[in-house]
Specification:
By secondary structure, the chain is of the alpha/beta class. The two termini are 40 Å apart.
Length: 628
């Protein structure tokens, strides 16, 4: 299977194929954050699509962990295995955990539609989760070759009666009891007419609770040559697919500190309303009666906007690209050392045509005359530029600085020094952001390619591996075609730029989540405001803006039931926007709605953080318009 296809990891069933594809750094970072609290209380992992929730769950499944000894000498997975060992997921390269990933949709969600009181529906859901989990643990052990006669269920001390009730000493009966519960609830869900509540069987009315008594699962030495003690675990995947009332009840149930198994719930950000999302992002929790956030539940946001480290993510993206190229036969025949970063960064820098360059130079000559600058002063200014600038970029930077000279106050020099400073003053180096701003202005004036090279591709991913893979896939497809045809593996700057921008526009057109039309309007409005500021001749923000800033005090007036709140909610959930708050600037505190990487490419803006246009929530409401 081609791992560059969207969500490919979810369809790879073989652990031998999955492990080499997983980049170790995100896993290492995840386990380091909450290493002491991941397996002894409820953990709620919240992230955007593609943030790695399901891959993380797949990694913890027994069939994956059981394959680890086969990779003992494999350098590609050494760091990953070290992270798992440090998190006590592995014990001397053997599994220390038996996790079942349980999708929350389908049967579990359907229980809410049964014609019973909410109390009974909650009991049925809990019973179904426990039955499916027990059956899943046993099936997982059999799938890796464990003889269930060599398995022993370890329960809490002083739980003899409950142990007898669930038949924990007889795994055949233990399994049969779980099967009976699962089958009975399945019949209820699919019945044309559900029976009355007083007609439910005894095994549904008096449901046993194995989660409350099971602590460990022991496997004798007959399987691996030494006895293993596994921590049982349930991972409820896509928990947002449950009915809100179900989700609230399951959350409350799994917070119970008497439950000794490890339990995670994986959910998309759109399961939170905007108010809750902002709380999670700022590490605040809503306190429910009888609960203690942090003590009985840990909430982890995979989308970390407080510590966005693009340099670190570039390294992750490079590693992912290397792993994903290896299985492709067309690249493998060209050598095992192929690197996407190298393939993209060898492209020659684009240059303007002589005609377009002459336009900028003519404008510069006019500005020099208007500013009454001497030739020597202009040459001194240009001598401060980095030596690697091409003539067109050099001319565009000069154009910006000359425009700034027209607008500067009399007492200030071009570079910020006092006008009376002597001619011997040191000329400051031009900041890289001004150069980027010049390149962006040439993009929009002359269609000069901008989005090329590995770094700009990685920066567009919002630190989201799936988004990086989706954007990069169009370039990999073109390189693969060239490899198959025996041509040089190279894409020039224009080919890269054109392919990535077309992909970005297509991805936005394909948005089909709730309020997607309104989110597109929002992106168009913010993108238009940012572009206007970016293209001002004097580039007041150097490389321009890519965010919309609202005073943080204004955010307090946003009602979570307003349409704008719902639009922003889904825009953030699907990374059309990224919320950065609080942001201190100009002596005020702001909330920034920064365009996501895909939208930035589609609108032709900078990837740099911090540049924003000022506005109000009222303006956003007007831009979004009424729901269609």
């Amino acid at each position: 299977m081609n791992p560059w296809h969207k969500r490919a990891n979810e369809f790879i069933r073989d652990a031998e194929e999955l492990l080499p594809l997983i980049s170790p750094q995100p896993i290492k970072s995840f386990f380091q954050r909450e290493s002491t609290r991941l397996f002894d209380r409820l953990v709620v992992v919240v992230g955007s699509p593609g943030s790695g929730k399901t891959t993380l769950a797949r990694l913890l499944e027994l069939r994956t962990l059981a394959a680890v000894p086969d990779f003992k000498g494999n350098t590609d997975v050494r760091e990953l295995l070290a992270s798992l060992a440090k998190a006590e997921v592995l014990d001397d390269l053997e599994p220390a955990l038996i996790a079942l990933r349980l999708p929350a949709g389908g049967q579990l969600r359907s229980i809410w539609d049964l014609p019973y009181e909410a109390r009974m529906r909650h009991r049925l859901l809990r019973a179904m989760i426990e039955a499916k989990t027990v059956l899943g643990w046993l099936r997982a052990m059999e799938d890796v070759g464990v003889d269930l006669e060599e398995v022993r269920i370890i329960t809490r001390p002083n739980a003899e009666a409950a142990r007898d009730a669930v038949n924990a000493d007889d795994l055949v009966e233990f399994r049969n009891r779980a099967r009976m519960t699962e089958r009975a609830i399945f019949k209820l869900i699919n019945a044309l007419v559900a029976p009355r509540e007083d007609e439910l069987g005894e095994h549904l009315i008096e449901v046993d609770a194995p989660f409350a008594i099971i602590e460990w699962i022991e496997i004798s030495a007959a399987w691996r040559g030494r006895a293993l003690r596994l921590k049982p675990m349930v991972i409820i995947d896509d928990a947002h697919e449950l009915h809100p009332a179900q989700l609230e009840d399951v959350d409350l149930w799994l917070r119970d500190r008497e439950i000794k198994i490890a339990r995670w719930m994986l959910s998309r950000i759109d399961s939170l309303n905007l108010e809750d999302f902002r709380r999670v992002q700022s590490n605040e929790e809503t306190i429910s009666p009888g609960t203690n956030p942090g003590r009985d539940r840990v909430r982890i946001l995979l989308q970390d906007t407080d510590n966005r480290n693009r340099v670190a993510f570039r390294s992750i993206a490079e590693d992912v690209a290397r792993r994903y190229l290896q299985p492709l036969a067309a690249f493998h025949r060209r050598g095992s050392s192929l690197n996407l970063k190298t393939l993209l960064n060898t492209a020659r820098l684009p240059v303007l045509s002589n005609t377009d360059l002459h336009i900028i130079q003519s404008e510069n000559a006019r500005l020099v005359e208007e500013n009454q600058l001497t030739r020597e002063k202009v040459e001194a200014m240009e001598a401060a530029y980095p030596a690697d600038l091409t003539p067109d970029v050099k001319a565009a930077v000069t154009h910006i600085l000359l425009e700034r000279e027209l607008k500067r106050t009399p007492q200030r020099s071009l570079f910020g020094g006092l006008a009376e400073d002597s001619a011997e003053e040191e000329v400051s180096k031009v900041q890289r952001s001004v150069i980027t701003g010049a390149e962006l202005q040439m993009l929009h004036r002359f269609d000069r390619p901008f989005y090329f090279g590995f770094e700009r591709l990685a920066d567009a991913a919002n630190e989201n591996i799936e988004q990086f893979v989706t954007l990069a896939s169009v370039l990999v497809d073109r390189l693969e075609t060239q490899a198959i045809r025996g041509r040089p593996l190279a894409l020039d700057a224009r080919q890269q730029h054109k392919a990535v921008r077309e992909q970005a526009v297509n991805l936005i057109d394909q948005w089909d989540f709730p309020y997607a039309p309104q989110v597109r309007k929002l992106v168009d409005f913010i993108g238009g405001r940012c572009l206007e500021l970016t293209l001002r001749p004097n580039a007041p923000l150097s490389d321009g803006a890519n965010a919309y800033g609202v005073l943080l005090s204004d955010m307090a007036n946003l009602d979570s039931n307003d349409e704008l709140a719902r639009v922003l909610h889904y825009a953030l959930a699907y990374q059309a926007l990224v919320l950065v708050e609080p942001y201190e600037c100009k002596g005020k505190t702001w909330a920034l709605f920064e365009l996501g990487g895909v939208a930035i490419i589609a609108k032709g803006l900078t990837h740099s953080h911090g540049g924003f246009v000022e506005g109000t929530l009222r303006q956003l409401t007007t831009a979004v318009g009424s729901a269609a």
